[in-house]
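Task 17 of the worksheet. Students: predict the tertiary structure of the chain below and write it out as structure tokens. Keep your answer in the requested format; marks are given for formatting as well as content.
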Amino acid sequence: MIKLKHAVITLLIMIGPLAYSQSLTVSGTVTDETGSPLPGASIVVSGTTNGTQTDFDGNYTISDVSSNATLVFSYIGYLNQQIPVNGRTSINVSLSEDLETLDEVVVVGYGTQSRAEVTGAITTVGAEEISALPVATADQALQGRAAGVTVLNTGSPGTAPVVRIRGLGTMNNNDPLYVIDGVIAGGLGDLNPNDIESINVLKDASTTAIYGSLGSNGVVMVTTKKGRRTGKTVVNVDSYTGIQYTNQRYDILNTQQYLQFAQQAFGFTPTSPLSSSGLNTDFQDALFRTGVMNKVDLGISGGSENSDFRFSAGYQDQEGAIIETSFERFSFRANSNFTVGKFKFGETMTVAFNKQNPERNLGARSLLEHAIKIPPYLPIYNPDNLGGFQGPSSGLDGQDAENPIRVQTLGEHINKSSAIIGSIFGEFEILDGLNFKSQVGLEYRNSNTDIFRPSYNDDSEGATHASDFAAITKNSSIRKSIILTNSLNYTKTFNDVHNLEVLLVAEKQERTDDILNSNSQNPITDDINQVSNEQSFLQSTSFEYNRIGYLARLNYNFDQKYIFAASIRRDASSRFGSNNRWGTFPSLALGWNIAKEDFLSDSSINTLKLRGSWGVTGNDRIGDYQYSATLLANFFYPIGGGLGTGTTPGGLANPNLKWEETTMVNVGLDFGLFDGQFTGAVEYYNNTSDDLLMSRPLPGSLGIHSGAVTENVGSVETNGFEISLGYNDFEGDFTWSANLNLGTTTNEVKSLGVNESLSGGTFEAQQISRIEVGEPLFFFFGLETDGLYQTQEEVTAHLGADSDKLPGDIRFVDQNGDGAINADDRVKIGNPYPDLTYGLNLNANYKKFDVNMFISGVAGVDVYNTNIYDLEGMPRLFNAGTNVLNRWTGPGTSNSVPRADGSPQNFNSISDRFVEDGSYTRLKNITFGYTFQSPSLDKYLTKCRVYVSGQNLITISDYSGLDPEIGNPLTNNGGGSQYELGIDRGNYPQPKSILLGVQLSF
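Model answer:
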């Protein structure tokens, strides 16, 4: 009996687990984060070979599953999930994208490459980083995201930023090349940032030399979002609304202080009736405002087994922080791809309509300069004056600053553009691994500027600022660029270890620009804003640009361990003379994936790649027809006491004009530890630009109107380091990541040919920046200060008894010791290009909450602050900063702010008095988000996220101006944007912004 009892107990113990672990049939659906099905996803019972895959709709069924088993769900590009069955027969799974795996494929010129096979310097910026900031153009969002990329933004809505990749390599155009889905474009201003999937920044020769004549300044490769072939249509809505503002102001004199300053400093008492009005107008507050921002984006995407599509529409409306400045854009985009057997074809297209109301300026002064200088006792408006505004009278008020509110609001200034950027392509698989692709790309842009300024008179006493006619300006331009690209690509793997890719490309670009400028006056009425024959001007201009190129590229790797890449490109450009129209641009790169070696197979190092590259790139971004002799029409000759219209030689021919060439050397090391938890990259680069195109002065006896000829004579060397570090923790309820990038750059001019130096920007007819051998491009050049003269004895001891300087004047350093302060004493007083740029991106998620914080900044940069001239210069009577109340009035009273109405050299000499440290650290963005999830909500929405975000909320800087980040100026001083580097002329400051947004998917 005892034995029987033991046998029964043993049987029950054995039957129990068998009953519990009975076989089940489990079914369900596998989707991505947006709810789209994932066909071909793998489902395997953990520890067995029992598995299946999802069908086209993401559905699966798997049999013979133990009730206590664990199912493993996996899909390429997504994080695996292990889910215990726990007796269930229905399990639905949503897989999250594997960010590290997604980085495995990067877009390069004319194709894609595995990240493991990349030998060049490429930085990728993803869609979430691009759309995190409420910017009008995606290149604004690159700031701080990529090591070695410097972005200078401006606060003016719709104004493109200044983008520089690895510093300055030429004194000419330093803009990078922009390529959108394979189409070369003039910029990113017409592309909705929400339509972008990723941006790859190509920085070295092995990645940019394939663009030959266009790659010397780096390449910005943009890939737009496309549909997925899942059989399900997905609708995405992304919208936000918010405000932007700036609370930075210059501390200037109020009315009481101003009147006292006028009398004591200049011995002048304003006599206009308004000087005793008792008003204390704050023109700065009147100039700035709180602007409203709104944006709505709608995207519809999907696809079937042989096709995919994505259509989107976007609307953005942004009011600037300065009155009457704004930007509005309507954008539409369509991407589709089709597969019919061995033939693939598709199209990409963006249509955009832009409208900008920019900052205006008159009299070569910015709005901010007017707001600083105008007397505070004046009202803004005066209905008795023509136009309705009030300004100063030169005779009665002793000055001539303009009313900035009238400048910005009277009449209108509107920039409009419509653009089409797109392509059509077809690709055919000739043989296994051999594909032929043909693509036609188009960039079409129609731009119009309408300026209407009605008649006005701000000063009924003396007409200091007045116009007795309406002024009308209408300018238009049309650009048409067509690019035809044919390529033959062969990809083959031999014996599972020898991977080969050969690419042949033939490309031709044709571009035309037609420009029409016109203006006139209307002395009769302010109600008609059309051009007429009254005091009219009419001019039209056409430019043609043609380029043809041939490319051969070879990529080879052995088992992804040892990598070799080479390319050679030949380009011809219509911008060069017949003797040197063609240029040759080779590149060579090597890489070693050390982590794939056997001796590291069991280590925690999963990525360790050493790579190096060398190559030559070109630059032809100069004006058209500079190789040719030109004629200047409408030239007036004095004949018989009158003027006769004729034609004169405009420019001298130079058939030897040729390419600027940049030789690039790059060495990099990529590393990753603990399955990509720690990642990083270190780069060193050295770029030498030769044959830079420069103007050589010509003797006046030649009779050439331009007075110069363009020649290849300059040379510049640029070098620096780049470091990228990342940490990723994607496990558990709380996940977070941190990514830091640092970039250094220095440049030195090696040759200027026969030129001793070249001038850059100017201010008050004085040279601010300079180009000189042995110095960086556009360094600040002026006098060095050493406090103020306190006594006449100091003046005499320093400059001699015959000096016209007096106590209270600035003591400038006599560099050559000749007892005189003049142009020979000018030295380098600053460098407008930063020594270091950096960005820190922090992300954290806890269950349904998410936080992003992005910090960017620069260090070791100087700014030439012309606003100090307006605030403390005291050249004559204007309003000024409160620092003038502490000006020198006697020995020991001040050693920084000179006496009023002092030596002209105090204010009209370029000196380090106006140079400040422009280093800053800025909280560029902070975002808090929450994703709603509930059974009732999930029936209708696959995603519902709300967020609040702030931009530019905190800036740490010692700079005394409104914004240490000096972007593109809108004043008409100084010339091109490269000459304006680091010069603050009262530039539009970047505003702070706060917005509330929602993201929906269904």
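Marker's comment: Residues 1-21, 970-975 have pLDDT under 50 and may be disordered. The chain has 13 helices and 54 strands.
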